[in-house]
Design a protein that fits this description.
The complex is a heterodimer of chains A (315) and B (272).
Chain A (H helix, E strand, L loop, with lengths): L1 H26 L6 H6 L5 H11 L5 H13 L13 H36 L4 H15 L2 H15 L14 H35 L2 H8 L4 H12 L1 H25 L5 H10 L3 H29 L2 H6 L1
Helix pairs in contact in A: 1-4, 1-13, 5-6, 5-8, 5-11, 6-8, 7-8, 7-11, 8-10, 8-11, 11-12, 11-13, 12-13
Chain B lengths: L2 H25 L32 H37 L1 H14 L4 H12 L3 H28 L2 H8 L4 H37 L11 H9 L11 H24 L1 H6 L1
Helix pairs in contact in B: 1-2, 1-9, 2-3, 2-5, 2-7, 3-5, 4-5, 5-7, 7-8, 7-9, 8-9
Classes of the chains: A mainly alpha (315), B mainly alpha (272).
């Protein structure tokens, strides 16, 4: 157990280092001159040279990479070219938006997928099963941003129940919640389509095992067998896919924030691209990639907790 | 078991429809898909404009056909590039084993930390958004997937008796890879390519929607949706057609992939 943990954590640290190196070196291939971006075309060559020296852009790349990593570890991502404030402050302001959206979407995904998947497995081979499978095939093929647009047409344009986009701020909790309903739903439906399939097949597999027959023979209620005995034993493949989907969720959140004009990290990164704001984009890409890697680690560790039998095997 | 031919036939039909429209658009579309005619904007569906015209008077049906061309072309190039690089890496890992195998698979694991969108964002921030960058980003994220599929399949081939016999007869690793491994891993690689095609079409649509892919005036389903979104209160129907096209294309390649996999490995079909 302990050696496994140490090995896994060492691998995690190595991956983070590699991720940061790729982000830094890809982003610093830039053929342009950041000083020119900041100061504009009207600036003098002397002013640009002074700024380059001040930003440390004349240092060798490896030194700059080391300085960037050292700063990032302490939560310092440098100064945004566009906003002229520390990147860390911009991230802190917008993190709540993105985290709330991601957590709400993931919770809704799991709830939808478990309900649909267990229902489909329970009615295996009948109309309910067929309907869930067909719906999920459609759900997999729908891009989340198009589903968002359809939801906006229905709930904002036709019915006028919910806002088509924008965010009123956290000071207005009811408005904030209303603004998040459509984005979270759009993200969740698309992801749940995949997860429901996995849930269905995992549940079906466990349903064929002896202990389920025993429970049925003992006369336990079917609902109780499904949720208390079958589902917990079907969790490993489900959690695996939830972990994989988190990478999609990171991407999905970036897209959906731009669909609904939500002021989160995904909007921020696009403002950064539009303005060639390298420190900002670099920090955000690193943050997204680190989130994906970290969730993968958590998923690996979660296996041990879900299925204690694995502890003996990974030693 | 009964589902198998249905998947294959329905998927193949949708794929034929989409690629057919894409190929046809090379030589013929009902109207010029980029010709503006502001006097005739928001025209309803009619005999001349089958699906009406958009906010600039462009013919929607023609734009959809040209959009199919963009989608299919981007997905095709990205899948071919990703598959070539990935299969070579996977074959190398399986043929050499040991440290090389470990290193290549570590690299593949690591590639999964970068979804296509993140990669496209980095490239767009450095070089500005363009179609080339979108293709590179989509191809890049295909590499680790193909590397894994090819390695897993090649690994099985390497344990077969006839490969052992070939090695005993003194054939080199490269010769065995070319003569025995490649023909035997074609099926799983082709199935994966079909599924990656679907993912590529989705990715192209999303990147173009976000402005990181195809640039105006080249028609693209994703860009059509981005433009339609600003007109939802005025002309919501413009946001329907491009989305349906994306859905049909993605579903077509997914079903075709499922169908091909079931056809290649009937045991798997029965198990599901």
């Amino acid at each position: 157990m302990a050696p496994y943990l140490i090995r896994r954590l060492a691998g995690f640290a190595a991956t983070l280092l590699a991720v940061s190196a790729v982000v830094f070196f890809v982003m610093n291939l830039l053929p342009g001159d950041p000083a020119l971006v900041i100061l504009g075309i009207d600036s003098t060559e002397d002013a640009r040279a002074a700024l380059r020296a001040q930003l440390g852009l004349d240092d060798p790349p490896l030194l700059r990479y080391a300085a960037w990593v050292r700063g990032a570890l302490g939560g310092d991502f440098g100064q945004s070219y566009m906003f002229k404030v520390p990147v860390a402050d911009l991230i802190r302001e917008r993190l709540a938006m993105t985290l709330t959206l991601a957590v709400a979407a993931m919770a809704l995904t799991v709830a939808l997928a478990l309900a649909a998947g267990v229902y489909a497995a329970a009615s295996h081979g009948r109309a309910g099963d067929w309907a869930v499978m067909a719906a999920s095939q459609v759900g997999i093929a729908i891009p989340a941003f198009w589903l968002s647009i359809l939801l906006v047409i229905l709930f904002a344009v036709v019915l006028r129940w919910l806002p088509p986009g924008g965010f009123p701020g956290w000071d207005d909790p009811a408005g904030a919640a209303r603004a998040l309903i459509l984005p979270a739903t759009a993200l969740a439906v698309v992801q749940a389509a995949v997860l429901a399939r996995v849930t269905r097949s995992a549940v079906l597999e466990v349903m064929g095992q002896d202990f389920v027959r025993t429970a049925t023979a003992q006369g336990l209620p079917r609902r109780r067998i499904l949720w208390r005995h079958v589902l917990p034993n079907a969790l490993v493949p489900i959690v695996t896919i939830v972990g994989l989907q988190f990478a999609n969720l990171v991407t999905g959140t970036i897209v959906i924030e731009n669909v609904f004009y939500l002021p989160g990290l995904g909007r921020l990164v696009f403002q950064g691209i539009a303005n060639r704001d390298l420190p900002l984009v670099q920090a955000l890409v690193l943050l997204f990639a680190v989130a994906v890697v970290t969730v993968n680690l958590i998923v690996d560790l979660a296996y041990l907790w879900i299925d204690p039998r694995l502890k003996g095997r990974v030693g | 078991m009964k589902r198998r031919p249905v998947n294959l036939i329905f998927g193949a039909a949708l794929v034929a429809l989409v690629t057919g429209a894409a190929l046809l658009s090379l030589v013929w579309t009902p109207h010029d898909p980029v010709a503006l005619n502001v006097a005739n904007r928001f025209a309803p569906a009619s005999a001349t404009h089958w699906l009406g015209t958009d906010q600039l008077g462009r013919d929607v049906a023609s734009m959809l056909m040209a959009g199919a061309r963009t989608s299919v072309a981007v997905a095709f190039v990205a899948v071919v590039l990703g598959a070539l690089a990935g299969v070579v890496l996977g074959l190398t890992a399986a043929a050499l084993g040991g440290l090389v195998d470990d290193a290549i698979m570590r690299l593949a694991d690591f590639g999964f930390a970068f979804p296509a969108l993140l990669f496209a964002i980095m490239l767009a921030a450095v070089f500005g958004p363009s179609l080339t960058n979108a293709v590179i980003a989509i191809a890049f994220v295909n590499v680790p997937t193909f590397a894994r599929v090819a390695r897993a399949a090649a690994h099985q081939v390497w344990t077969r008796g006839y490969v052992l016999a070939a090695r005993a007869a003194g054939r080199g690793r490269l010769a065995i890879t070319l003569d025995h491994v490649i023909p035997n891993i074609a099926a799983p690689v082709i199935v994966q390519a079909t599924i990656e095609f679907a993912i590529g079409i989705l990715a192209e649509a999303a990147l173009s929607y976000l402005g990181l892919g195809v640039q105006p005036p080249v028609p693209s389903w994703g860009r059509m949706l981005a433009e339609a979104q600003t007109l939802l209160f005025l002309a919501p129907h413009l946001a329907i057609w491009p989305g349906l096209c994306i859905m049909a294309a993605v579903m077509g390649f997914n079903l075709l992939g499922d169908g091909l996999r079931d056809a290649a490995d009937p045991r798997l079909a029965r198990a599901r």
